[in-house]
Specification:
The complex is a heterodimer of chains A (about 70) and B (about 375).
Chain A: E1 5-13, E2 16-21, E3 24-29, E4 41-45, E5 48-52, H1 55-69
Chain B: H1 3-7, H2 13-30, E1 34-38, H3 41-50, H4 52-55, E2 60-64, H5 75-85, E3 90-94, H6 108-113, E4 118-120, H7 124-133, E5 138-145, H8 150-162, E6 168-174, H9 177-185, E7 194-198, H10 199-205, H11 211-215, E8 221-224, H12 228-244, E9 249-251, H13 263-272, E10 273-280, E11 284-293, H14 302-305, H15 321-325, H16 349-352, H17 357-364
Parallel strand pairs in B: 1-2, 1-7, 3-4, 3-5, 5-6, 7-8, 8-9
Antiparallel strand pairs in B: 10-11
Helix pairs in contact in B: 2-12, 3-17, 8-13
The chains are: A alpha+beta (about 70), B alpha/beta (about 375).
Chain lengths: ~70, ~375
Amino acid sequence: MCLAVPGKITKIFNENAEVDFGGVIRETSLTLVPSAKKGDYVLVHAGFAIQMLSERDAMETLKLFKEMESK
Amino acid sequence: MSDYTSKFDFSNNAAANNILKEIKASLSNIGRLVSFMEVCGTHTMAISKSGLRRMFPDKLKLLSGPGCPVCVTSAGDIDNIISLSSQRDTIITTFGDMLKVRGSEKSLEECRIDGADVRVVYSPMDSLKIAKDNPSKRIVFLGVGFETTTPTIAATVLEAKKSKIDNFLVYPLFKLVPPALELILTNPELKIDGFILPGHVSTIIGESPYKFVAKKHKIPGVITGFEPLDILYCVKLLLSQIEKNEPKIQNEYGRSVQPKGNEIAIKITDTVFEPEDAKWRAIGMIPKSGLGFREEFQHFDAKKHFKIKDVDLPEPKGCICGEVLIGKAIPPQCKVFGKRCTPSTPVGPCMVSSEGTCAAWYYYS
């Protein structure tokens, strides 16, 4: 029920955006993340972007897991 | 596979093996049975699907809590909605998960087969479009969900107000996660040593609403993502907090969860809704654990519009969903699980929803 899917904004028009989920494009409301821009990754739930996904934080988590490889 | 998923691949077998080794060492240091609970249906599915439960030593128990909003919708509300679906000029719109949940006699899906106009939508905004396209009908959207979903419905209500669409109604069935945690922590029959906290609910509400878990109850909690490695790492962090006897709320899912959550979403929700007591199926009333419409938005409230009264209904015979929902029992302990109760013939709510605990155990354990 709380499933949310990451996608990339490819186009913005008014309060909505076109978001690309690996080839599937869906119209998505940006009402809850109005500062999102073209090219940003957003987390989408029930037709609304609910957060911008931080690439920096994602890289940090990947780095942390990478470090765990050699422990 | 989305661009994001291929760019950020969180699978890493070598890391998983090392984290598992650390988990085993911590459990051996702690030297007793440790029980962690997840309170998110998406975690329930991720844990079952990935086989994580089988990888852990016997001394670690992973329990599922009331993390599926469809499962905790009361049977009385389902009956009320079913009766609404037979009203003239009324269209029921809902997320797909609600279709198969049974009230005392039937489900919305069966009503649809009998001719009721019940439509599945992807977004509450789709429901608003149906209202706009059908001005002579009343559209009742089933407002089911936790904090992840409520801002999307609040934003839709604001849009309905702005666009002066007056045939759009919402049947409020919203539930809040922190009051459910409080209920679990104050139940003397339950002994939970830590919480795997929900990643997407926290994306909206942030870290602070969970502080009471560590501060008042001295229980650790980790906000967690949905990759198997996220969950493994969360278990390691929870065990480490127990070893050090330093309970706190940690955020493992920083790529989505900001400390303050999504403040715009919180503000939009607060504009339209306010906390109210709510009935959780098979659990009962939990104070301030739901959301109702604020005074100025009451004309969107389907329960008020149709003057609907709350009804109490007994749970189906033989079903122990009430105990499963709070982690007091696991599905195989139920006499009807896997026999009379299966995903195609569900008896209780936890078998109905695709994210219900019984469905997860049935499919993957």
